[in-house]
């Protein structure tokens, strides 16, 4: 893999972490309201998957989608302004945190109803297949969503008609506060997809390279016309379900065990991090950025100056996003009506 | 072309016309393909346009309706057939949470050229789970439009207009109307899709109705004319938006209002119509506005009870007599 690609993946993971932690701050300051579902801990999934996609591929996401949008290329200021509910947000202030949309980048929305992403994704996939275009759809959802009826209905249709959809289950083991062993009779999610004859595999979601590799292979199979593919990506969220959730249902030792393995924090700390040796990496097993940074150092791709520089740039970028959001005007009712009637055109209704 | 055509055929011709002129139009639903549609609306289209454009789906209303939403976002113009409106309850997330809200939530980025066709209404002894209408639910979803054609002519143009529109539109079709015939003149230009029509002018009382009940109201009005009552009948043609100007003008002329609907009267279309017209033309009314509606109960299977649970031509005539001749109130 090329150095630039790796650097850009590291950059996006660091941006994701910095953006989300800043969003949490802005929430406590009252600049962001409503539900705010944050992504720290899961960065390797968005980055690994989306760096494997082509610009013509479509992305369908959930309510925890800020990072999906950022990695897809939606400018950080447009995302932050949307969290602030401002006119310059990527949905004009009408969607908020859970409903980021960017038509230009084929970011087809974040959805607040669990289980909605599948039908949207197979619909886009249907459009691609009907027109025989060389494109694919990436459909994100969490482990809590696999118990919705639409999961089964949509996977069945996707398989039946060989639709070009990559289903990506971000398995963070919790449906809000209910642990996977308490919400799923079959906790190995990828096996459910096998029931619909969809090629399916489990990936270590703390290892961005593994996620990336699995995504590239799956998308390649999709482009060969073999129909939908399924990835279960095992990951972990460090925060609660949303800002209103302290996450008290999880034992501290569990959260701490995952946090200890998280190198993003290490990289963001002032002191120069001590990168683990290869054998230490092996021992860590399910780490994510440690794998990335370790790999990059091994290849001679990464110097600490790079990380420091990147960190500085990202910090400025996030500051700029917040300034932009603060200075963007509030939308007015005229904007709201225009959004509602956006498609009316010249039709005479009555 | 101007000839007697059943409603199903008018819809079928409308589908064919739009599918042949626009490659992005496709239809999907249970049994719309090989079988040709439960009410024949998609007859012969499968052979003509192939399975990608006329798609038989599994029995998965929630997801195939949602599929159409996604396809519309990606540039196609889907026409979903939900076998009966009763099954649409399983698709309400797609219709209300997705189709009606995505254009808005995206700040106006995504068009939603989606049509959802739903046969419905009380037909013949289909029992409670196959005999209802959902207009009360759908009318409450901001961002949706609802058309309710009662004649072949309206079915023909309203479906074509709905397919061409970039807004999500639900077409409520009444199961008893599919095989009723009427004049279809394909050369006539279309009226605006949501304009109401005065099916019969009159000066004594206004009946506002739609779909199958508009036909019963018309029949009642014709019979009442022999009793010296001159009844105006308005067929709304659309429940969202509603052509209030047409309704207001009529009430100002007749000073009496009766709304006839098949659905349960409680919190339904009639409630909305009467409330709005009370706001807009209270001083014009010579008597309280009234509603004649289906009873507030699930539709009984028994044929006699079924008939008793929804308005009939005779019931409409009785109500009008009570309103115009107070002495006759029993």
Automatic annotation (TrEMBL), chain B:
Which GO terms of the molecular function aspect are on file? oxidoreductase activity
Q: Which cofactor does it need?
A: thiamine diphosphate
Q: Give the record's keywords alphabetically.
A: Oxidoreductase, Pyruvate, Thiamine pyrophosphate
Question: Per its UniProt record, what Pfam families does this chain match?
Answer: Transket_pyr, Transketolase_C
Is Oxidoreductase given among the entry's keywords? Answer: yes
Where does the Transketolase-like pyrimidine-binding domain lie? 5-180
NCBIfam families, sorted: PRK09212.1 (NF006667)
> So what does this one do?
The branched-chain alpha-keto dehydrogenase complex catalyzes the overall conversion of alpha-keto acids to acyl-CoA and CO(2). It contains multiple copies of three enzymatic components: branched-chain alpha-keto acid decarboxylase (E1), lipoamide acyltransferase (E2) and lipoamide dehydrogenase (E3).
What is the protein name given in its UniProt record?
2-oxoisovalerate dehydrogenase subunit beta
Lineage of this protein's species? Bacteria, Pseudomonadati, Pseudomonadota, Gammaproteobacteria, Chromatiales
């Amino acid at each position: 893999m090329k150095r630039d690609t790796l650097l850009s993946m590291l950059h996006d993971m660091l941006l994701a972490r910095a953006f989300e932690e800043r969003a949490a701050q802005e929430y406590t300051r009252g600049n962001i309201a409503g539900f705010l579902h944050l992504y720290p801990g899961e960065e390797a999934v968005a980055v690994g998957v989306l760096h494997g996609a082509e610009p013509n591929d479509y992305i369908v996401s959930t309510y925890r989608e800020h990072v999906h949008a950022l990695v897809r290329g939606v400018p950080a200021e447009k995302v932050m302004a949307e969290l602030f509910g401002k006119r310059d947000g990527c949905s004009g202030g009408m969607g908020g945190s859970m409903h980021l949309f960017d038509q230009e980048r084929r970011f087809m929305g974040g959805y607040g109803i669990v289980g909605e992403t599948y039908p949207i994704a197979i619909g886009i996939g249907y459009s691609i297949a009907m027109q025989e275009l060389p494109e694919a759809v990436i459909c994100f959802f969490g482990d809590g969503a696999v118990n919705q009826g639409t999961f089964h209905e949509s996977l069945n249709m996707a398989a039946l008609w060989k639709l070009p959809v990559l289903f990506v289950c971000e398995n963070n083991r919790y449906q809000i506060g209910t642990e996977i062993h308490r919400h799923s009779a079959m906790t190995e999610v990828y096996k459910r997809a096998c029931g619909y004859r969809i090629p399916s595999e489990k990936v270590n979601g703390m290892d961005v390279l593994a996620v990336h590799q699995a995504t590239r292979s799956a998308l390649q199979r999709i482009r060969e016309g073999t129909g939908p593919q399924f990835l279960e990506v095992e990951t972990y969220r460090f925060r609660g379900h949303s800002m209103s959730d302290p996450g008290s249902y999880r034992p501290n030792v569990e959260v701490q065990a995952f946090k200890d393995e998280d190198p993003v924090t290490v990289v963001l700390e002032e002191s120069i991090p001590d990168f683990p040796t290869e054998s230490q990496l092996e021992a860590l097993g399910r780490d994510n950025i440690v794998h990335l940074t370790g790999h990059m150092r091994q290849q001679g791709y990464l110097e600490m100056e790079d990380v420091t520089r990147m960190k500085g740039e990202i910090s400025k970028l996030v500051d700029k996003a917040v300034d932009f959001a603060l200075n963007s005007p509030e939308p007015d009712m005229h904007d709201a009506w225009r959004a509602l009637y956006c498609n009316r055109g010249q039709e005479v209704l009555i | 072309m101007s000839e007697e055509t059943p409603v199903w055929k008018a819809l079928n011709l409308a589908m064919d016309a739009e599918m042949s002129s626009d490659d992005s139009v496709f239809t999907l639903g249970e049994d719309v393909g090989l079988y040709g549609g439960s009410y024949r609306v998609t007859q012969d289209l499968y052979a003509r346009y192939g399975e990608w454009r006329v798609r038989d789906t599994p029995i998965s209303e929630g997801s195939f309706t949602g599929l159409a939403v996604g396809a519309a976002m990606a540039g196609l113009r889907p026409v979903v057939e939900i076998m009966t409106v009763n099954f649409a309850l399983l698709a309400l997330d797609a219709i209300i949470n997705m189709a009606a809200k995505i254009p808005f939530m995206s700040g106006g980025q995504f068009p939603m050229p989606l049509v959802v066709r739903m046969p419905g209404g009380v037909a013949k002894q289909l029992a409670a789970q196959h005999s209802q209408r959902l207009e009360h639910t759908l009318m409450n979803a901001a961002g949706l439009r609802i058309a309710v054609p009662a004649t072949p002519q309206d079915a023909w143009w309203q479906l074509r207009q709905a397919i061409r529109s970039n807004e999500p539109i639900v077409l409520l079709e009444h199961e008893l109307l599919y095989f009723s015939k009427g004049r279809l003149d394909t050369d006539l230009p279309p009226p605006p899709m949501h304009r109401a029509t005065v099916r019969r002018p009159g000066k004594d009382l206004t009946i506002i109705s739609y779909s199958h009940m508009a036909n019963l109201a018309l029949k009642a009005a014709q019979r009442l004319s022999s009793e010296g009552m001159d009844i105006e009948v308005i067929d709304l043609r659309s429940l969202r938006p509603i052509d209030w100007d047409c309704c207001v003008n009529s009430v100002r002329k007749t000073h009496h209002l009766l709304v006839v609907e098949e659905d349960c009267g409680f919190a339904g279309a009639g409630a909305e119509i009467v409330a709005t017209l009370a706001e807009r033309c209270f001083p014009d009314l010579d008597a309280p506005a009234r509603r004649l509606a289906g009873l507030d109960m699930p539709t009984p299977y028994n044929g006699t009870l079924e008939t008793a649970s929804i308005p009939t031509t005779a019931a409409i005539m009785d109500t009008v007599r009570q309103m115009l001749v107070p002495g006759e109130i029993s």
